[in-house]
Design goal:
The complex is a heterodimer of chains A (105) and B (373). Chain A is mainly α. Chain A has helices at residues 3-9, 14-40, 44-61, 64-78, 85-104. In chain B, helix 5 (113-149) crosses helix 6 (200-216). Classes of the chains: A mainly alpha (105), B alpha/beta (373).
Chain lengths: 105, 373
């Protein structure tokens, strides 16, 4: 995960990118939380909302792994299926932690 | 020229990261950015701020982008603001729906910065070009509207022009017309015209002429040029067979110069202070008939206290008598001399009285315009 490259890819200076990463970390923390509860409650509509938001912000900044995972969950949830959703959340959380350490490093 | 101000872009998106990303991109380009994270706020800001362009997310909880678009298009103030909607890559239905609602373009998420900037730039250019065309036309029409609502300048409207006027029309839609206008601080224009014909068409013509005077009598054109330009437009817009006679006196109080152009109209009477009146005979073609027209002009060096009179043939002609203005001129000049000590603000009405012996029944519109240098 190279923030310098990622920043360049979307045409931002590194400090601007880092600001956005901070914002992303904030919003996706809450999205991940909402996603977790929605899966526990088997509420597919809520799942769609939470994961759509995650997908959007990850995609915008170039966190393509999270983007892909979120996209699949959204696709399934729209078809009323929560298959693989829990595993997806775990995977995304792992990447989230990586982002945190890269941002702090 | 309007003062330069930043172009404003309104972003409506429920994702804070999207907003911040777009905002950062656009601010770097030099745009001012206003943001809203939901539909209702978006609509409210659109009305308050009147953005030059809107970036609108479709998928928002609560009121979605389509609802916002409908709301904006319904409101006359914002209806013409270009809207670019933001949508997921595979949402063909959303794209079609967006266009149907009046969006000008769409941008897919995730954003690709150069694409966003290119589309924003393009649609701003298109929108500004259209608006400027509209503003131009509206300005021109406004001239006409203003001309119609305050057609005849009174001495009180423009005291610096130092004139008095008598205007009487035989019918409501008078064919005679005058205008007094300020061209620059010390330069004033005095214009009197007679339209052949007395019907509804003539009131449109006089409004058009007033607008034309405003547009074409400016410091950069000589009186002859102004008259020629007015003729050229009139040739285009006058109904067949309708024409105008007119005379135009341009007084430059700074240079003490009176410049007179005449288009087939009774001659201006010039009365030097303490001297005898004379008619200023300047040849010129009537307005509105000929494509190629010729105007002579006469420049008179004037002094403070000199006077000149513009009028229409109703003042001197008596069709019932078959007397035409050429033969009535001596009478007019004598009358002007007789009244040379009358203060200028009474000169027009007194001149009329003198020539009609207070009792003549008008057979035509009459305009008398008296000016003191």
């Amino acid at each position: 995960m190279n923030f310098t490259e990622m920043a360049e890819a979307i045409g931002l200076a590194e400090d601007e990118f880092l600001e956005l990463v901070d914002l992303f970390l904030e919003t996706s923390a809450s999205d991940l939380g909402a996603l977790r509860s929605a899966i526990d409650e088997q509420d597919t509509r809520q799942v769609v909302e939470a994961v759509h938001s995650l997908k959007g912000s990850a995609g915008n900044l170039g966190f393509s792994q999270i983007y892909e995972i979120a996209r699949k969950v959204e696709e399934n949830a729209r078809r009323d299926s929560l298959e693989g959703a829990s595993e997806a959340v775990e995977a995304m959380r792992k990447i989230y932690n990586e982002i945190v350490s890269t941002a702090r490093g | 020229m309007q003062p330069k101000k930043d172009l404003v872009i309104l972003i409506v998106d429920d994702s804070p990261v999207s907003i911040k990303l777009l905002e950062t991109m656009l601010r770097k380009e030099g745009y001012a950015v206003v943001t809203a994270k939901d539909g209702p706020t978006g609509k409210r800001l659109a009305m308050e701020v009147m953005p030059d362009l809107v970036l609108l997310d479709i998928m928002m909880p609560g009121e979605d982008g389509f609802e916002v678009m409908k709301g904006l298009k319904k409101n006359a103030r914002c209806a013409t603001v270009p809207i670019i909607f933001l949508t997921g890559r595979d949402d063909m239905e959303a794209k079609l729906a967006g266009f149907e609602l009046g969006a000008v373009d769409y941008i897919t998420k995730p954003f690709h910065a150069p694409e966003v900037l290119a589309r924003v730039r393009l649609h701003l250019k298109l929108s500004l070009a259209t608006n400027s065309l509209i503003a131009d036309q509206a300005y021109r029409l406004k001239q006409l509207e203003q001309a119609q609502t305050s057609m005849l300048t009174t001495p009180d409207d423009l005291p610096a022009a130092r004139f008095s006027v008598h205007y009487s029309a035989l019918h409501e839609a008078g064919g005679d017309f005058y205008d007094v206008f300020q061209i620059s601080e010390d330069v004033f224009g005095y214009f009197v015209a007679d339209v052949s014909g007395h019907d509804i068409a003539t009131s449109f013509i006089t409004a058009a002429v007033k607008a034309l005077l405003k547009q074409n009598c400016t410091p950069i054109y000589s009186p002859v040029e102004s008259m020629r330009m007015i003729n050229d437009v009139l040739v285009e817009i006058l109904p067949d067979g309708i024409y105008l006679t007119a005379c135009y006196a341009n007084l430059n109080r700074n240079k003490n110069l009176l410049s007179i152009v005449n288009a087939g109209h009774p001659p201006v009477v010039y009365q030097p202070k303490g001297g005898e009146s004379r008619s200023v005979d300047v040849a010129g073609d009537v307005l509105g008939i000929f494509n190629e027209v010729c105007y002579a002009h006469e420049n008179i060096e004037v002094d403070t206290g000199d006077r000149f009179f513009l009028y229409t043939d109703g003042l001197v002609e008596r069709p019932a008598d078959r007397r035409l203005w050429a033969t009535c001129l001596p009478e007019l000049l004598a009358a002007c001399d007789k009244l040379k000590d009358v203060p200028v603000h009474e000169s027009a009405s007194k001149l009329l009285k003198e020539l009609t012996n207070g009792g003549r029944v008008p057979e035509d519109d009459i305009v008398v315009l008296g000016v003191e240098v």
